[in-house]
Structures are given as C-alpha cells and as structure tokens.
Amino acid sequence: MSAFAHPRIDPDSGICEYFSAGQCESCSLMRTPHDVQVREAHAQLTELLADVATPSTVWDEPLVSAPWGFRTKAKMMVRGTAAAPVFSFPGSHEGVDLADCPLYPPLVTEVLESARALIRRAQVPPYNLDKRRGEIKYVLVTATPTEAMVRLVLRSTSALERIREHLALLDPRVSVVSANIHPEHEALIEGAEEIHLAGADRLRLPLGNIDVDVLPRSFTQTNTAVASELYAQVARWILDAGARTAWDLYCGVGGFALGIAHEARARGAHMDITGIEITNEAIESAQGSAKRHGFAGAVGPHTAPEAHVRVRFETADATDWARRQATLPDAIVVNPPRRGIGEALSRYLNDSGVRTIAYSSCNPETLAADLARMPHYRVARARLIDMFPHSTHNEALVLLSRVAPEND
C-alpha cells in the first residue's frame, strides 16, 4: 500500500487510476513495485558498465526517490476550449485532464488549477494542432516547497492584455509569471521570446544545503529531492579526493559547483571552481546564486582563517573551453545531456592526467560509450540515480580515478 495519500492512487494496489483506466501510459512500469523497479534498474546498470567497472569498484546503494509527489516541474499541454481548458501530457489521450497527476506535489496541482481559472476568465483559446488556431499551447510550472514560477506558452501576444488583467487569479504562492511567445507550429515546447508579466524575475530553488536562482528559461532537474542529494554526493566525493581546484562542465545553473563550494566552506578547505555552460541564461542564474552565497569570483565567507572558496562561471562550449586551458584542475565534474560528452571530450579527458572525474549521466548507455574511450580511468564508485520512478529512464553517477598509463 502506498504511504502517499492521493485520490488518484488506489489504496490497495498503489496504482494510479489514470494508468489503470488506460488514459495515461507515461509511467510504463506502474504495475511493478517501486523497490523492484530500483533493483532491476541497478542490475541493468551493473551489466551495462561491466566492461568498464572492475572488481574493486564500489557500488553504492541506489539513490531512491519517493514514488509519488516528486515532480516539481510540470509541462502541461493545453487542450479543450477557453471555457473548459484541459491540461494533459503530449501524447496522452485527448480530453483526459492530468493536472492532478500523483507524481506532482500538491502545490504544483494547486498552481495548475489557478492557471486554469486564469485561462477561463481571460478567455484564452487553447491552440489546436490540427487547425493551427488558438493561443495558449502550454502551462509550465516550476515549484519549490513554498512558491512557484508559471510560464504561459502562447502563439502570439494577442491575449497578453487579457491575461494581465486577471493575473490575480493565480495562486498567491506564484512568485514569478512570464509569457513565452512561440509562433511556430513545431514540436518544440517553447519559443525564443520571454515576456515578464508579474512578480520577481527569478525563482529561488532550494537544493539541500544550497539554493539556486532559476530564470524562466533555465533548465532545472525535475526531481528536486534526488537532485539535492546528487549534488551533495558529488561534493563529498570531490572534497574527499583532496581536490582544491575543479571544473564543472555542462554546469547548468550551477548545482554541482555551488554544492562543492558549500562543502569546501563547511570543511574550511580551499577550493577554486569554474563552471562552464553554453547557455547564457543558465550562467546568469549561476552567477546570481554564487554572488548571493558569497562565492562570486572572490574570497567568500569561510569557517577557518586560512580557508577560501572561489567560484566563477563562464558561457562557453565545454569541450572547446577545456581544450584552451593551460592549467588543469585536480577534479572535473561532467553532467552532459543525453548524448553524453562525446568522443572529443572523452578522449581529451582520457589524455588529460586529471586525478578525479565525477560523471553524472542521464543516459547510462552513452555513459558506457564515453567510459570505453577513457581507459586511463577506472570506475572507483558507481551509483544508480532513481530520478524518475515508474519509468524506464534511469540515471547514473560514477567517480573515476586516474590509472597511470605505461608512458606516464
């Protein structure tokens, strides 16, 4: 029986009623108990990494998510009519409203309901894919435990004034509101233009010991609780390895870099970290967070007179930037998209001589391919990351230690 009380979860089977009714198949492993999902995923990961792991590899216990209420981000397609908008997932059954999906915490569902009230009152017609008519395409929500950011993806600006008139209908915990203008008829969820409508210009997202600034177009992890422990785990690994300089490649809004900085400060250790991300908005978010934490490119508050922690963020391509550097760090963190770090960066890292690498992967298959190109490193530790329960999508975290080649 599920310990999470939700009206859409059967109290006996622990299965979501949308899945039971065949109305939503997003959670393809719903009928498999969560603990079994984790065991099977762990077995698959160990098999996948069998060629790059060694008998001395330490397999840490999987980082396990709560089975329900863990998704702090919602991307809801708007269907139906202005008078009766329907919130659904892309690919879900027409007419099935999924705003109260049990994967969402209550705040997300409550914010979605207030967005529905806004759409009705402002009479904003949902975009019809077949007819290519209508205005609102998606409602995007990012939530913390106490507040939320709402983004309305619109075909044009024609409904903006009506929307502005009725913004007070949004849940009072909504602290950031923006409109994303997406005129193209294409599969991409959002467009290039973002218009601030109300509240602050960014959301402050707590991630365990740190918090990060999230601008409307910044990427953040969907499972905040698991991401928080992921960042903390990497920070412990990097500091335990004795690193005093580090790169955070594909740093996003700075979760890993700031987590390492916090851990160094807590230990009274020296640490100099550089985060690299190709997206300007993510770097702006990371720089704001670093400044607020006292790390922004200067000596920050510390716990011992001899300790200092410095964090810098730059906008650049990770591979190109790394190749240009004259001095290597003690440790490197990589957190690439699903395609992995690729041949160029994996071969560069293999030849670099860096002592310690932490690789956070959202696609274990590309992780295995990248590691196969890095024979100068061994997998010292590995951990399954249960980021998306009830799905076949699993993530992995590995700690790599340098193995000196014969010509070193």
Order of strands across the main sheet: 1-15-16-14-13-10-11-12
- Class of the largest domain in CATH? Alpha Beta
Give me the Rg, rounded.
Answer: 22 Å
Order of helices and strands: HHEEEHEEHEEEEHEHEHEHEHEHEE
Report the β-strand fraction as a percent range.
Answer: 15-25%
In the CATH hierarchy, the architecture of the largest domain is 3-Layer(aba) Sandwich
Helix content class? 25-40%
Number of helices: 10
- CATH homologous superfamily identity of the largest domain: Vaccinia Virus protein VP39
Count of folded domains = 2
Overall mean pLDDT score?
A: 93
In the CATH scheme, what's the topology name of the largest domain?
Answer: Rossmann fold
Overview of the structural elements:
With about 400 residues, this protein is α/β, with parallel strands linked by helices. It has two domains: about 230 residues, 3-Layer(aba) Sandwich (Rossmann fold); about 130 residues, OB fold (Dihydrolipoamide Acetyltransferase, E2P), CATH 2.40.50. It has ten helices and 16 strands. The chain has an eight-stranded mixed sheet, sandwiched between helices. It has a six-stranded mixed sheet with strand order 3-2-4-5-6-7, with helices on one face. A two-stranded antiparallel sheet has the order 8-9. α5 crosses α6. The radius of gyration is 22 Å and the shape is globular. About 0% of the residues have low confidence. GO terms for molecular function: rRNA (uridine-C5-)-methyltransferase activity. It comes from Dermabacter vaginalis.
